[in-house]
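Let us practice reading a record.
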Amino acid sequence: GQFTLSRDGDRIAHMRARSPLFGDVQWAEVWLMDADGGAPLQLTSDTVPQQGPELSPDGNWVLFRADANEDFDFYYNDKIFIVPASGGAARVLLPEFSGAIDQATWSADGRSIFFQANIGVREELFLVDVESLTLTRLTEGDHAIGGAAFDPSNGMAAFTIQTGANPGDVWILDVGGGGQPQQVTHVHDHLADTFFLPRQEAIQWQGDDGLEVEGLLFWPLDYQEGDRYPLIVQTHGGPASSDKFQFGGSSDYIQVLTAKGYFVLLPNYRGSTGYGDAFLRDMVGHYFNQAHKDVMAGVDYLIDRGLVDGGRMGKMGWSAGGHMTNKIITYTDRFKAASSGAGASNWISMYAQSDVRVYRTPWFGGNPWEEDAPVDQYWEDSPLKHVAGVTTPTLFLVGELDFRVPMPQSVEMYRALKAQGVPTHLYVAPRQPHGWRELYHRLYKANVELDWFERWVMDREYVWEEPPEVGK
């Protein structure tokens, strides 16, 4: 799997797994060997997914990341661990850090570790002293840092910064210099001058149990104080991820929705990363515990603020966002329309159909075929169990070659709605995996969803966007 060469070129820190299949990710362990392949040494032995191994400059330690706690219990926000290069027990750094660490690398002298982390609706850069555990935040803003690369030879970091007005130009930062990031490329500077872009803000509300929940709100371009507007709720995938300050893209087309007069809400519901381990682990033992209630509490918050017309709302999402859509339409009839992308409907059949299981086993307390299997919990959290009585007009979209949330999951939900006379349609994209790649399919998805929402939420016609001619 992943590997890094030591800075003296003599050794390789790497991952070894029993197969390259994603379903075996929990069996990947941290190893160290000589650069010629000799003297292999296994440094970890557990059933927790790990990644990013790197040998320290002095050759004494190997850092890696794992979504575990200090006892190597599974399903936590990603943390930094270090393990002796000679073998021994690994220890976690910053066990109480509330963020999820996405990348990490040693400083030139090995006394510090530079890392990138998701903290709620933001992605930032940090530096931690390995001995004192003193944490320094290097960036701060309404943005999402991406693809950070640190060069220890000169102390410089290069990365992208995504904002509501820029999908990600390149910036640099002198990590030890105490200065501010400096923009290097200006590829996207023209967007804010060329297009009307929506206002974007972080908002907070109380969940059903009183816990604070956060999300992002995009405002309609034509917003007028005192008027109420329709709402589209988009829930992120994962579910162990979070929506962060962003520009929007072909999968969510936020700018188009706001141009058509919608508010767009992206809630970081229970189960999201970057809010501490307890927030993430609310799904352990019961997938749909507080997550769907967090979404609806966010909707009510916007209605109570006088911003949203509760009679004109739509729901959409992909992957875990599709799971959430399937749950929401069985939980409430308040949405006028919905679109479920690659969503699970039956967790029992899904467990065997999908290409990965390790992240799902904690949700239900075991697998569905073991002795005394928690089948009741699997079925209780399956939207299909509660599908009787659904009235929300709902689309289902899935890729023909989706191995993560395979097509039968969408078929089961579609057939259930069809049998009950609920307006619905199933779209299967030929050749497409879990994340659709072909541009024509992406455009088709946007067109069919926009047409659906305009029809059922706004009661107006939608003119499909035509693909450009080849060569034009």
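A brief commentary: The CA atoms of residues 275 and 350 lie 28 Å apart.
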